[in-house]
# Entry
Amino acid sequence: MSINTPVYYKSPQTLIGRFIMKQSIRGGVFWALIIGAYVASKAIGFSKAYPTQISRDKIAANFGSNTGLSALLGRPHGISTVAGYAQWNTIGVVVIILAIWALLLSTKTFRGAEESGRWEILLAGQTTARKAAVNALVGLLATMLIIYVIVAACFVLIGKDQAVNIGVGPALYFALASVIGGALFISVGALTSQFMPTRSRAAGAAATIFGIFFLVRAMADVTTLNWLYYFTPLGWIEKLQPLYKPQPIWLLPLLALILFLSYLSVYLAGRRDMGDSIIAEKTSVKSSNKLLGSPLSASIRLNRGNTLSWIAAVLLVSIFYGLLTKSAAQAFMQTSAVHGVNKLLQTNSSSASILYLGIVFFLLMVLIMSYSASALGRIREEEAQGYLDNYLVRPVSRYKWLSGRILMVFSIIILMGLASSIGTWAGVFSQHSGASFHSIFIAGFNILPPSFLTVGIGAIALGFMPRLTSILAYGAIGWSFLIQMVSSGINLNHWILDTSIVHHIELAPAVSPNWRSNFIILVLGVSLCVIGAIKFNRRDLANE
Amino acid sequence: MDDALIIKNLSKKYGKFFALSSLDLTVKKGEVFGYLGPNGAGKTTTIRAILGLIKPSSGSALVFGVDSQKNKVEAHKKIAYIPGEATFWPGLTGKETLLLLGKIHGKVDLSYQAELVKRFKFDTSKKVRTYSKGNRQKINIIAALMTRADLLIMDEPTTGLDPIMEQAFRQSVLEAKANKQTVFLSSHILEEVEALCDRVGILRAGKLVELGTLSEMRHLSALTVQATFEAAPPKVDHIKGVSDVKIIGHELICQVRGPIAPLLSVLVAAKPKSLLSREPSLEELFLSLYGDKEVRNLDSDNVD
# Structure
């Protein structure tokens, strides 16, 4: 038998980095464009909503004294200018978004790949554990670089708007200050992946680190303990102040920390065995028979951590926004933004706090809809990963399994509605903002039908196009959110407006709920679930 | 009802490609049936169709008279399945997983479960994510056997097991047979099939090409004859049924199909020093059906 000349591929040593960059780039581009659009809406929106210096000074006075917003976004500097406002409103939000995305991506790349056995296959190539870790980090940081390039391009374009007027240099620096938090949490995620035995724990540890950094920065922002800024990288990012009295010196500790954490991750990757972690997992644990009696009870047990996190998130977000009711309401009643809010809510209400609560419940509605999409994604994952086979090769009907899971999601949505009411009321009550418990309680349940419809859309996708379940469920939310945002600024054709799931909901307490419309959306959601379940029962299981 | 499994005209089409084509097969109650075929022949497709995990393009499968597509839950009460890949919830322990799977099935022989755990040297206290591939496969095996189901469907069940555990598995299958359970065993390990199965079906490109007991198949196949002589071996090529004649020095090796007497008379007349004859192994039967080349070609097609 003759031996053919083998084909030699270019640079097999850097393949892992290129592969990881290719895998993460789509998400990166998506977030970069979202950030660009967000900054455009904030900078251009501010310049149009507050066209005079008097109105800008007023908003600066209102926001400047709001400790809640300072805790969330950082201490405001020069927010009576478009640049100062854009800086304050952007960096705080973008850092949160990118940090969470980056730590999830990083822990998925490192610990997730190792947990599933994919990393082992890569390590069998022309590489070592350390070289592979370096490659992975370079791949992820290259994705961050691409995000930076897109964000910077967006910022430069936005800066060219006469009303915004930000130069190219400051725009590039602004983009760097916005994105560097993502790079930092790539390295944090890489490090926690060396310490923790599972992806979820690595992500949890990285999220805890983020939470501590955030809390310390928030304390520095709302107290006189200014020295606390030095102890949190998020404080260093805040100190960069790219568009108002810039302090680029703070880039040095940030870059040094990214390099140090990356080096430590690479060092530890080479020290430990494949599959092991610095903090070892207990190999033997005490078994518990609780909630293992049926597929449904097992699902409750296996999803309880995730479910409780979602409910807690809804509760905390609603408490937080409830606490801001008074000052936020005062702020936007003094601006032309109130017109847009009235348009979004389709009302002419003049009560500032009630209008504000309408917006709060709109945001909570989107949050609960996101849970619905995530829950359907998890149901699909159970099938894709092959866990569902374990049930369906035994005397369990597909209808029973799927209806049980959907009813569980419906129940959790109702619990979230309750949590949103209780949380918002608690915040409002502490501020003596005047809204009654009854109206807030009703508002909490008024926002639930779109979540049921999102479940229905996910169920239809699960039945007909299972691999698109998450994409279609999240897509429906994204589309609806986009339509609502755009329609508050320009007049859209009613056919387009009607495609938004949330458009048909009257946002209580700003507007009285339309129970008839809610009922129709609920029935539509349930009907889609039934059709999806019928199709699911008839199709082949689609494992990945 | 003497038949545990009746497959009638079962087909599965993906686009224009037939993964399974008009399969007719009956497995008798209490027998151990071996289901063979190279990668991509349609073995797993058959099993997933029997279990109702995929919908056949045509045909049906009756499990003890129950249509496994129309009445999956009733059919599954009589079935226990061992897949070749073990996918369990990583956060549960082995004990919790066995408990969950047992409760879902609805029937478990707890003392036998304990015996199986001991036999397979399975530590139930660990979380699934910490088990090796072989240990995870033990969960599949124990979870199926502990139900004492009437029909055990196995798809490459010993994947990842070491030779000692393979022996434990064989012992368990023989126990199931003694317990009058029916076993449908799809395997690549021909030695395992040879040791356990009463009948064998061989699948090729979605079609059943051989079906019968091993002795029936051997009769249909060539016998290998090997003889050593003091001098040059006699010529045997002209004898009816003789093929593949090889002469290495004073040794002759050939295959004979049909009556062996004409060949034997020629060989005995030449006064052999030694004379050996043996039936083909299952592996030889398998290879004679496919040939090396075809096995390789089918290997590249992973429909299974």
Remarks:
- Chain B touches chain A at residues 48, 51-55, 72-74, 76-77, 79, 81, 83, 85, 87-93, 95-96, 99-101, 103-106, 123-127, 129-130 (CB under 8 Å).
- Residues 33 and 293 of chain B are 27 Å apart (CA to CA).
- DSSP finds ten helices and 14 strands in chain B.
